[in-house]
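User: I'll paste a sequence; please echo it back and then give the predicted structure.

Assistant: Echoing your sequence first, then the prediction.
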Amino acid sequence: MKKNVFILLIYAFMIKRICSKSTDTLKPFFINKYLQANSETKKKISKELIRKNFNFDYIFSRLKEGKHYSQDVQKGFFEHNFQHEHGIEHPNLVFISYKYNPEKKDKVCPYLHGGVSSFDKRQIYHHINRIDTHWRSINPICLYPSSWILSEWWSSGQYENLAYLLNFIKENYNIDENDVYITGVSDGATGIYYLSNFYQTPFSYYLLLIGSMELLTTLTDNQFYLRNFQGLSFLIVNGEKDEVLIFIM
């Protein structure tokens, strides 16, 4: 009897060791699967990770190390558009440095153009000279969403578009999430006043050129809270002859 119990204990110990090794082997697989997945798939994989009950310290250190990005990605100018749930297409022009190196974290700068009272939803192409040779030496990742009369910067559609665009860049390029700043001119700067009141986490600072916070009271019905601007880093530039409200935080 004692012999049988001893044999069973040995089997139990061996099975535990095998299961432990199997779990250890699965750790890198599931973590890499999570890191390489898009945001929608990550939700499903995160539930699997919780069920596996892996060692917390291992998961934390691996997630902190981050994703391994590919060198085989699009560079230069290309279009990456967003389809709103109501079927409205939002054009986005993206510029990735020709010298992009996935081993190095890049700064990111979204730019919001002015003159949105236009029916041309691809008017961003009139603002950006894509054939200028200086682009060969530009390092930051530049994002150029387009706004027009049916989707102005102070609309929910443009908020969703910008969030989608930033998420696409984070998933495919190695960026410095502590150095993402947003800039805009005229209507674009006014749009940043709108966005910064509730969409703050992605941005390290805001650069506004000849924008107007006062105009938002007539452009949108959304409620604004001045306390939401506290603690944010703004550089606000208005020229001497600009007949718009100069607001200094």
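Confidence is low (pLDDT under 50) at residues 1-23, 244-249. The domain at 76-237 is CATH 3.40.50.1820 (Rossmann fold).
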